[in-house]
UniProtKB/TrEMBL annotation:
Residues involved in glutathione binding: W65, R96, V97, S98, V99, E114, S115
Residue ranges of every copy of the GST C-terminal domain listed in the record: 132-256
Active site: C32 (nucleophile), Y155 (proton donor/acceptor)
Xref: PANTHER family: GLUTATHIONE S-TRANSFERASE OMEGA-LIKE 1-RELATED (PTHR32419:SF6), GLUTATHIONYL-HYDROQUINONE REDUCTASE (PTHR32419)
Organism: Solirubrobacter ginsenosidimutans
Official protein name in the record: Glutathione binding-like protein
CDD domains, A to Z: GST_C_Omega_like
Sample GO molecular function, one term: glutathione transferase activity
Chain coiled-coil ranges: none
Length: 281
C-alpha cells in the first residue's frame, strides 16, 4: 500500500436479523453517505412506517456521533452518544463508532453496522427487487469498483497523508467517473433499464461530489455537472419519489467542513456551489 494512505476500518458487526423490521431501529446521520444509502433503500422499499429511525447530529467531535436534542434525539433508547449502542453490544468495543447502525430492540444489540449488508436486509424484509438473481453478478462487480475507486476513493484523496497517496486516489476517482460516464452512455441505470441496489448505493456519493468532495477532499479534476450522462442519471434518481427528502445538504456541508479539523481548521463552510444541477430539474 502507498504510504500515507487512508484505510477505512472494517465493519465489526455483520449479523443477520432475528425477526422483521418492527423489531429493529435504524441509527443514521444524514450527513453520511453510507447512512443515506440505508435511508434511501428504507424509503423506496416502503419500510419507513415500520422501521423507526434516529438521526445523529451532523457535527461530530472526538466523542463520536451524538444525539444533541430536537431533531437529533434518540427517542428509542435516550442515548446521548451512539457509542452507548456499541458498548451495550460489546462492552470492550474499542473501534470507531460509525453510522449506519441497525439495532435489535428486543435483544438490545447492534445487528449490523455495515450499510452494504443493511440494504440487503431491507430488500429481504420488503421482498424487494433491488438485487434480482439474474443481475447479482453484474451488481456485485459494479459495487466493487465503484466503492473502491470512487466512493472510498474520495475519502482516500481527502485523508491522504502523502502526495503520492493523494495522487493515486485522485486518479482512481476520475478514472471511475469517466468509466461511469461511458457506461451511462448506453444505459439508463447501472445494471440496465431498472433501478437496482447498485444505483442507490452510488447516488449519495454523486449528490455530495460538487458540494463537498470537489473542494474539501480536493477531488477537483472536474465537477459532476461537467459529465452530461452522470448529471442526467443523478437528476433522474434524485427526482424519484422520497429521494430529495433524504438529501440534507446543509447537514452534509456542516458535517464535513466542521468535523474534520485537520482539513478545515477554521471551520468555514463554503457558500457554494450555487447550482448543483440535479436539484433544479
Ligand atoms: N462500512 C461502513 C462505513 C461507515 C462509515 O465509515 N461511516 C462514517 C460516516 S460517513 C462514520 O460513522 N465514521 C465515524 C468515525 O470514523 O469516527 C458502512 O458502509 O456502513
Amino acid at each position: 500500500m502507498t504510504s500515507g494512505a487512508f484505510v477505512r476500518q472494517q465493519s465489526r458487526f455483520r449479523g443477520r436479523p432475528h425477526g422483521g423490521p418492527e423489531r429493529h431501529h435504524l441509527y443514521v446521520a444524514l450527513a453520511c453517505p453510507w447512512s443515506q444509502r440505508a435511508v434511501i433503500v428504507r424509503a423506496v422499499l416502503g419500510l419507513s412506517e415500520v422501521l423507526d429511525i434516529s438521526y445523529a447530529d451532523p457535527y461530530r467531535d472526538e466523542r463520536g456521533w451524538a444525539f444533541t436534542g430536537g431533531r437529533f434525539t434518540d427517542e428509542l433508547n435516550g442515548f446521548d452518544f451512539l457509542e452507548q449502542a456499541y458498548r451495550a453490544t460489546d462492552p470492550g468495543y474499542d473501534g470507531r463508532v460509525s453510522v449506519p447502525v441497525l439495532w435489535d430492540k428486543e435483544d438490545r444489540l447492534i445487528v449490523s453496522n455495515e450499510s452494504a449488508d443493511i440494504v440487503r436486509i431491507f430488500n429481504d424484509w420488503a421482498g424487494g427487487d433491488l438485487y434480482p438473481p439474474e443481475l447479482q453478478e453484474e451488481i456485485d462487480g459494479l459495487n466493487e469498483w465503484i466503492y473502491s475507486e470512487l466512493q472510498n476513493g474520495v475519502y482516500r484523496a481527502g485523508f491522504a497523508r502523502s502526495q503520492e497517496a493523494y495522487d493515486e486516489a485522485f486518479r482512481g476517482v476520475f478514472t471511475s467517473l469517466e468509466r461511469l460516464e461511458t457506461h451511462l452512455q448506453e444505459r439508463v441505470y447501472l445494471a440496465g433499464d431498472r433501478i437496482t441496489e447498485a444505483d442507490w448505493r452510488l447516488l449519495p456519493t454523486l449528490l455530495r461530489f460538487d458540494a463537498v468532495y470537489h473542494t474539501h477532499f480536493r477531488c477537483n479534476g472536474k465537477r459532476l455537472i461537467e459529465y452530461p450522462n452522470l448529471l442526467r442519471y443523478t437528476t433522474d434518481l434524485y427526482n424519484q419519489p422520497h429521494i430529495a427528502e433524504t438529501f440534507a445538504l446543509e447537514e452534509i456541508k456542516r458535517h464535513y467542513y466542521t468535523t474534520h479539523d485537520e482539513l478545515n481548521p477554521k471551520r468555514i463552510i463554503p457558500a457554494g456551489p450555487l447550482d448543483l444541477g440535479f436539484t433544479s430539474a
